[in-house]
Amino acid sequence: MGHLDHAAYGWLTPALSYVMASIGAALGLRCTVRALAATGATRRNWLLTAASAIGTGIWTMHFVAVLGFHVSGTEIRYDVPLTLLSLFVAMLVVGAGVFAVGYGRNRGRALVLGGLTTGLGVASMHYLGMAALRLHGRISYDPLAVGLSIAIAVVAATAALWAALDIKAPVAVAAASLVMGVAVSSMHYTGMTAVTVHVTPSDQALPGATAMQFIFPLAVGLGSYLFLTAAFVALSPTADERAASAAASTRHPIEGPPNPAPAH
To answer: Has residue 104 been placed in a domain?
Structure first.
């Protein structure tokens, strides 16, 4: 049995992964708030942005944390297609949950359905990402810890969507995002406590890509996407601000050039 180290670089990977989870949650919640105040294509676009932000933030959190996961007696590689599938699943299932809240007519039912769907999406992403690990040996899981991690994911997702429905102030959204970051990180590390690796020493080369060849560049790219999108959302006027601007324009129309004097 290999010795597992979940933080081989000390607090660097847990802290950075928490930051990414919190940024993704903050951006997703803010976009959901914007969506609920909009209609038509604008609502759809905000919900799509929210789904991509939350999914990207959760995925980046997971794989930044996994960068600190080491197993004695074996190297670790990553199956590229399966890793990308985990990202797609995260965005798709989180999107389904966000849209359930954004378009649900019954608030309570939409919240339960959205939280359950989003939480299961988070858990699916986590365990798909773990299935993408390639090492010399076999990974097994403690069912109780797996079940607990899934429960944490569902509760965290439901709480985040509730915050999007009930909390509008930016400061309150930021506080909810920090709590969501703690919940997502707790889900990840609870799931990691379920892991046992039975190492089989071998000199054969492992298939897949190393963390620095694939995971690190992709995580940096997705992290950059989150920061740029966060800047765009922060600078975009809200529906109230646009309405106020339109009202001001109506009250104080811009005067054009003076009419020419009539010809004699």
So the answer is: yes
